[in-house]
Q: What sequence folds into this?
C-alpha cells in the first residue's frame, strides 16, 4: 500500500478512534512522524484550557490581563498553563479557582468532588494542610532567589519558615517499617 | 529486581485467567496523586524531582501496602529496558520518555505498579487478569490508604485530589478494561459500539493507552470524567458496560461461525499459517494475526494452541521483549527476521506440528 501523501510505501497504518468515527490513515515513515506530531500537539491542546470557555463575554483585553496573572507559589502564569495544559502546583487551583471553574465544569460536567477524602483531612482542616504546605513552594522559590542575591539572612528565615510548616503538617516517616531501600537499575 | 527475570513470566494482564477472560484481557484502575509541598512535575526543577522521588520512595517503603515492592530507577535504565516495562504495561510511554528523576515500584505478581514523577508525582496502578474491576478497586484502595498515612496528598475540599491536568482532578481515577473484540471488528460493528460509548462519556483507546493506535483488535474502555461522581460510581460506570460489550462480541462470534464459518475458518487458518511459516514479520502484523488465531482457538477452529500461549506470544514478540529474550539489540529489519524465527520455533515446539494441527 502506498502512503496517502507521497509515492513511498506506507509503513504506518493508523486507526483514529477519538474523533467519534473510525478513520484509517496509511503513511510512510516521514509523513507518519509529521502526522503523529501534529495529532499529539492537537491532543495536548485538547486536554488543555485552550478553546475551553473561559467565561462568556470576555474581551481580548480581559484575556490578556488574565494571561498575565501568576501563581504566588509556583509563579506559573495563566498563559503558560493555557499553552501547556498542565498546572504548576496545587495552589493554582486556589489562585485560579475562578478561571478554572468553568473549564472544570466543561470537562467533567461538575465542580464538586463527591468521592473519597484523605482520612487525615476528615477534620475541618481538610484543605488547610494542602494550603499551608503549598506555601513551602513559594518560600523555596524565594529562598533560591535570596541565595542568588546573597541575602543569606532572608534565605535563613525562609528555611526556618519551611521547616516550621513541614514539621506541623507532615507526619514523620514511620520508623517501624522497613527502611527505604535504594532503587536498583 | 532484575528485569531479566521478568522475561520468564508474562505479567498479570496477559495471564489469560479470571472471569470472562476470553474477551476481557485485564481490568485496571489507576489513581493520580500529588504531594502538596512540591510543584507539579512539569514545573518542578531537576532538584525538586529528585526530592519528590526520594520523598515518595522512602515513605511508600515505610508502610505495608499488602505486597512487597521492588523499586526500579527508570531514569537510569537503558531505552530498551524502559520500552520493556512499557510493553508489560508497568509504566506508561510518557513515563518512559520523561526526563529527570523517576522510578517505578512493582510487586512480584506485576499487579501493583507505582510510578513516581509521571505526569503527576504519583500514579498508583493495579491490574488483574480478566474482568475483576471490583477486586482491583478494593486492592488499590488499600494501597492508597496506606500511602496517604505518610504522604500529604494535595487535596482541595471542593475540587478533591489535585492533579497537574484538570482532566484528572477530583477522584484522580481512571478505571479501564482491555477487551479483545475481533468479531466486532470483522463484522464492522465496532464503530457503532464506539460511538455509543462516547455518548455515555467513556473513552476508547488502543492497547497502550492515550494516543496509541488500536492494534490486534485490542481496545481499552475507560471513564472520561473524574469529578462529580464517587470512585465506586465510576468503577460501576465502566463495569456496567462491559457485560453489554461481552454480549455483543459473543453474538458477533456466533454470527461469524453460523453464517460464514468457511470464511472465518479460512481467515484464522491463514493467520495461523503465516505465523508458523513467515520468514520476516513486523510486530503489528504479528499482533493482528495472533488476534485472529486467538479468536480461532476460542471458536474451536484451531485445536492445538492454548490461549495462554497466544497471550504469551503477544507480549514476547514485541520489540523490547524479543531483544531481551534473544539477548542482543537488533534493528527493525533484524527484529522482523528474529520474530519470525521465534514464532516458528514456538509453534514447532509447542503445537502438534504440521498442517494437520489446523482442524
A:
Amino acid at each position: 500500500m502506498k502512503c496517502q501523501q507521497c509515492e513511498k510505501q506506507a509503513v504506518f497504518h493508523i486507526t483514529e478512534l477519538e474523533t467519534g468515527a473510525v478513520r484509517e490513515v496509511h503513511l510512510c515513515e516521514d509523513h507518519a512522524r509529521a502526522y503523529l506530531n501534529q495529532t499529539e500537539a492537537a491532543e495536548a491542546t485538547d486536554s488543555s484550557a485552550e478553546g475551553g470557555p473561559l467565561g462568556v463575554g470576555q474581551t481580548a483585553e480581559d484575556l490578556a490581563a488574565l494571561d498575565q496573572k501568576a501563581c504566588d507559589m509556583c509563579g506559573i502564569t495563566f498563559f503558560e498553563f493555557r499553552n501547556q495544559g498542565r498546572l504548576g502546583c496545587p495552589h493554582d487551583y486556589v489562585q485560579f479557582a475562578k478561571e478554572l471553574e468553568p473549564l472544570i465544569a466543561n470537562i467533567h460536567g461538575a465542580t464538586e468532588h463527591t468521592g473519597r477524602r484523605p482520612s487525615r483531612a476528615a477534620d475541618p482542616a481538610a484543605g488547610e494542610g494542602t494550603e499551608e504546605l503549598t506555601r513551602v513552594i513559594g518560600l523555596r522559590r524565594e529562598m533560591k532567589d535570596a541565595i542568588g542575591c546573597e541575602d543569606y539572612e532572608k534565605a535563613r528565615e525562609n528555611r526556618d519558615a519551611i521547616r516550621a510548616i513541614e514539621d506541623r503538617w507532615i507526619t514523620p516517616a514511620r520508623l517501624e517499617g522497613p527502611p527505604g531501600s535504594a532503587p536498583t537499575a | 529486581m532484575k528485569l531479566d527475570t521478568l522475561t520468564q513470566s508474562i505479567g498479570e494482564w496477559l495471564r489469560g485467567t479470571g472471569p470472562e477472560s476470553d474477551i476481557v484481557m485485564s481490568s485496571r484502575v489507576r489513581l493520580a496523586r500529588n504531594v502538596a509541598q512540591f510543584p507539579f512535575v512539569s514545573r518542578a526543577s531537576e532538584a525538586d524531582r529528585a526530592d519528590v522521588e526520594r520523598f515518595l520512595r522512602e515513605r511508600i517503603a515505610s508502610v505495608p501496602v499488602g505486597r512487597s515492592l521492588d523499586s526500579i530507577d527508570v531514569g537510569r535504565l537503558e531505552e530498551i529496558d524502559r520500552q520493556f516495562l512499557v510493553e508489560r504495561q508497568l509504566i506508561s510511554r510518557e513515563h518512559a520518555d520523561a526526563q529527570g528523576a523517576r522510578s517505578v515500584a512493582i510487586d512480584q505478581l506485576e499487579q501493583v505498579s507505582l510510578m513516581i514523577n509521571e505526569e503527576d508525582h504519583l500514579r498508583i496502578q493495579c491490574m488483574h487478569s480478566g474482568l475483576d474491576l471490583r477486586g482491583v478497586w478494593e486492592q488499590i484502595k488499600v494501597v492508597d490508604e496506606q500511602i496517604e498515612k505518610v504522604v500529604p496528598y494535595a487535596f482541595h475540599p471542593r475540587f478533591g485530589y489535585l492533579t497537574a491536568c484538570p482532566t484528572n482532578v477530583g477522584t484522580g481515577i481512571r478505571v479501564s478494561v482491555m477487551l479483545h473484540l475481533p468479531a466486532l471488528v470483522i463484522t464492522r460493528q465496532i464503530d457503532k459500539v464506539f460511538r455509543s460509548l462516547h455518548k455515555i462519556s467513556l473513552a476508547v483507546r488502543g492497547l497502550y493507552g492515550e494516543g496509541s493506535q488500536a492494534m490486534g483488535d485490542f481496545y481499552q474502555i475507560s471513564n472520561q470524567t473524574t469529578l462529580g461522581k464517587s470512585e465506586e460510581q465510576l468503577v460501576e460506570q465502566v463495569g456496567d458496560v462491559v457485560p453489554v460489550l461481552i454480549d455483543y462480541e459473543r453474538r458477533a462470534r456466533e454470527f461469524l461461525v453460523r453464517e460464514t464459518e468457511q470464511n472465518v475458518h479460512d481467515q484464522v487458518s491463514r493467520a495461523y499459517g503465516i505465523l508458523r511459516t513467515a520468514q520476516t514479520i513486523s510486530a503489528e502484523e504479528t499482533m493482528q494475526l495472533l488476534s485472529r488465531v486467538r479468536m480461532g482457538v476460542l471458536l474451536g477452529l484451531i485445536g492445538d494452541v492454548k490461549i495462554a500461549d497466544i497471550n504469551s506470544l503477544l507480549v514476547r514478540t514485541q520489540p523490547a521483549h524479543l531483544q531481551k529474550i534473544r539477548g542482543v539489540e537488533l534493528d527493525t529489519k533484524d527484529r522482523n527476521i528474529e520474530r519470525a524465527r521465534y514464532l516458528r520455533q514456538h509453534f514447532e515446539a509447542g503445537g502438534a506440528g504440521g498442517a494437520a494441527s489446523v482442524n
Observations:
- Residues 70 and 105 of chain B are 5 Å apart (CA to CA).
